[in-house]
Amino acid sequence: MLFSIVFTGLIFLIAPPFASILSGKDAVLFNHIMDAVHVYSVSVIPWAVFQIVIGFFVGSSKTKYNLFITFIRIYAFRLPCIIILTRFSALNEFSIWYGMLLSNILTAIFGSGTLSKYEEINTN
Q: Contact 112/57 with Cβ under 8 angstroms?
């Protein structure tokens, strides 16, 4: 997780030169790239927590938990967040970006809770 935090900071530093290469002289495209990079960079941290939880369940051969958590991530968190944000806010393209960020945060919380409950059940 420390790697994710450090890498996120690094992304903020090197993103503008790369965004200007990708966008050429198009200022609107540059702004969209930078906005997406900022949201996605922050989204990496809860995603890393989710990956740690998934890794635990893969390593312990309890892959049904992975399936369940991933299903919840997409169908209970991500899609509803994106649908609600696109229909009831003026965020435009940010609806998708913030929907993904919010679903990663919710999945990290849900996955951590599932892992805690699993450990609680199996240590008693």
A: no
Residue range 43-61, pLDDT digits in tens: 888 998 999 999 999 999 9
Structural domain count, the chain: 1
Euclidean distance between CA atoms 92 and 96, whole angstroms: 8
| Pick from 64, 66, 41, 42: nearest CA to 52 | 66
Residues of the domain holding 14: 2-123
User: Which secondary structure element, helix H or strand E, spans residue 118, and what is its range?
Assistant: helix 94-123
pTM score, whole prediction: 0.83
d(CA 19, CA 11): 11
